[in-house]
Specification:
about 150 residues; alpha+beta; 6-stranded mixed β-sheet; two-stranded antiparallel sheet; 8 strands; about 20% helix
Length: about 150
Amino acid sequence: MNKPLFGLLAAGLLSGAALAQSSMPVMELTTGFHRIEAEVAANDQNRQVGLMNRKSMPQQHGMLFVFAQNNTHCMWMRNTLLPLSVAFVDADGYIINIEDMQPQTEDNHCARKPARYALEMNLGWFAQRGIKPGSKLNGIDKAPRPQ
């Protein structure tokens, strides 16, 4: 295969991966005076891929994972290049606990009580804004139903 053709094929595959990630719905959430633009991972495929392979994420952006059932869900960072903080959130929108996660690790970070959602943001985003367990995440009731 010649190099220009291989380059075009590789670019096409990368564009397809970016399109697949950006095809997730985006919704607005707030907590206090802080606004979040969250991609919503509401199906198995999107929850499995999450923020893998991304090299950056704007400060006010994140990813909301919507689970079908309340449970002590766990997150990990396989193939995830960004350091992230994850807030586990109950069905009413209250943050249960927040965990910091390091890139490309398989350590489990779990909800301390049954959670319906998990919100991943850049590492330290919650702490820098004084957002703690017990804080309310508004707009979460408009999240798509899990599939």
